Amino acid sequence: VLGVVTGKPLAVGGSVGREEATARGSLYCIQGPAGKLGTRLDEYSVAIQGFGNVGSHLARLLHLEGAKVVAVSDSGGGVYNPNGIDVPAALAHKHEAGSLAGLANAEPVTNEELVELPCDIFAPCALEQVVTEENADRVKATIVCEGANGPVTPAADTILEERGVLVLPDVLANAGGVVVSYFEWVQGLQEYFWHEDEVNAKLRDICARAFQEAWETRDRHATSLRMASYGLAVQRVSEATTTRGLYP
Q: Does the predicted TM-score (pTM) go above 0.90?
């Protein structure tokens, strides 16, 4: 029964595009405010905390879009170059050495220091609670993209909102993996599997629409993007429950 579990290897009914889906969803979410502000990704500098499945793919995808990735890190610490990290070299170094330490043409930074580096976008893609009320006022990024689950605490959320920092919440920004898991389920039910370009195009459509709806709700209710996203989600569950009843 192919749909009973997702994230499977391709040989047993997995979906192409699943491995990088979370990072790709984050990329599409980042493209949302860039479009609203009339800017391009190649005008942004980005610091990414975490170089696992989400962080490494996000670094690669942003690099391909022309963004300047100034810092990346793994569990052992990070590397920083204000003129831009050579992302393909960082990926190769991580694969060969097992860590980012010692990457050429970059200076070492701690994970704590990386949070406060000067950049346009900060993407925490590893641990929860890395931006707290203790360091939120020192975050220099104008956009924080939650590639991990819960990297910004509620208290920090308030501080960032008051400072005018746009937080792309995890429920929106890292949902790409779950969306492509849904695609895998659909393909399994059909026993017909899509090409990767089709998977990515469908993912882009869903992420772009979700961002647009959340952004419009944010503007309409003069609230944060996180609260707008939660509000939309709860409203949809409420409407479905009211229409269908508790026991369909």
A: yes
